[in-house]
Amino acid sequence: MSASKRMSSRLASWLPRLVVAPSLLIVVITVYLFILWTGLISVTSSKFVPVYDFVGLEQYVRLWATPRWHTAVANLFIFSALFLALSTALGLLLAILLDQNIRAEGALRAVYLYPMALSFIVTGTAWKWIMNPGLGIQKVVNDLGWETFRFDWITDPRMAIYTVVIAGVWQSSGFAMAIFLAGLRGVDNSVIKAAQIEGASLPLIYRQIIIPMLRPAMLSVIVLLSYIAIKSFDLVLALTNAGPGAATELPSTFMFAATFRRNQMGVGAASAVMMLMTVAAIIVPYLYSELRERDNG
Amino acid sequence: MAEALSQSGKARLGRLAIYACLLAVALVYLMPLWVMVVTSLKPLDEIYGGSFIGLPQTVTLDAWRAAWSQACIGTECTGLKPYFVNSLLMVIPSVILSTGIGAINGYILTKWKFPGANFVFGLLLFGCFLPYQAVLIPMARTLGILGLAGSIPGLICVHVSYGICFTTLFFRNYFVSLPDELTKAAMVDGAGFFRIFWSVILPTSIPIIVVSCIWQFTQIWNDFLFGVSFTSGASSPITVALNNIVNVTTGRKQYNVDMAAAMIAAIPTLFVYVVAGRYFVRGLTAGAVKG
Lengths: 297, 291
Known about the structure:
Largest sheet of chain A: none
Order of helices and strands of chain A: HHHHHHHHHHHHH
Shape of chain A: flat
Structural class of chain A: mainly alpha
Oligomer: heterodimer
Helix content of chain A: over 70%
Distance between the termini of chain A: 41 Å
Radius of gyration of chain A: 25 Å
Structural class of chain B: mainly alpha
Number of strands of chain A: 0
Distance between the termini of chain B: 50 Å
Number of strands of chain B: 0
Largest interface: A-B, 99 and 93 residues
Radius of gyration of chain B: 25 Å
């Protein structure tokens, strides 16, 4: 083999790596290096611009001493728990009902899923108007004759977080439905037939046999919805602007406001690190198990 | 006989209940869209006087006209038009670049596996689940250093960087199921790396290209966090401008203009969803259902 040919064959074997290298470099910088950078800022006294002095965990102490952050964390728990439970339950119910040889299934599925195509800003704008106590649902029901009816959650600091749940479930339950429906289509029909011959009723078959078989889909739904819940930002901003007061503050809105509005970059970075750790605790084990199963299967 | 009759009657009742349930939920899901459309077509007096859900008595496109070309975003009363253009200028290059890069990455990670290819894939995959708050500050600094702060090209860079993670996932999962014989045969025929990509792989990947483009289009068009963090004023994308219109607190609130503006921001993604919903669903479930 001549030298030039050997050169070109060596080049050919390196070519794929060379082509993928820029992407890898971009992702390593914009994801991993930037995460480290954020971590670095979180241990400095940065305010308006980053300064690189080491102050230890001072910003984390300050963060956890901020009442607004406590509200944000408490809200995240309330919001995520309800958002997950309701979206999953509704998505599963719709998927099961749609799986009963329904006419116009395609059209119905499209209706349940279209909110997923919308921006959260659009969703927030629409629901803000619908839940406006002066002109929205409350007024319509009052005008119909039920004059004591109250639906003013959006202006009530104790209830406002539930309006975010309503809008979030409306937007995302179709997504849960789509994943469950894909899972249901994978269930072998002969299993159902056999159970029916044994005399089992349909609700029993679903409870005992089919829903347990949907465990992988369930896992995916829960993981992906938790991710959506943790990064929810635009929805809250458009619907309630984190208010009234700080009643609907979430970690995502807290981080943004601290960093870009209140000149507390260090606190903002610390809150971002807390968010990242929460997401990583859920996502990394999930990705690890998904990839391993894929390799084994 | 009687028992059989009541059995079938019961089954029919059950079917009826299922349809009633599905239709009721469908109506609830359609309600916000309905409310947006009818509100945007009403004159303001009717909104303050009537019910938010009823049909308009007088249909007018004034609110749409105002939202498109007159509404004030901050101090500039230009309507959404320039921001709609901004979003287009941002979305089109971002979608093309990220899809193209994702396609070639997926091809390499499946057909030209090298030691550590799976590790590289894992690194990219985590990027799909990154809470972007964790990179906002460094990205803002970097864009500033590169002289791209507050500009559309800056946003394109951001969307391509994080979009690569998703598009690589789509293409990798798709190419994994293509038989290796396809590329092996082409190699025996003397075709090289790029030649195989162009003439063997790409022609088979139209569906996944559509999935990737739709997913990226929807994600980038709907993005708000990057838009609001890295741009201001005239270079903002449409979601940021919409939020500004809606949050104006001075004067009598023009709900019809708000709704028309929301519709304008929603129409491109809704249109894509209506014409290519099937592919949209595939993109959504790609992260969940194993390829």
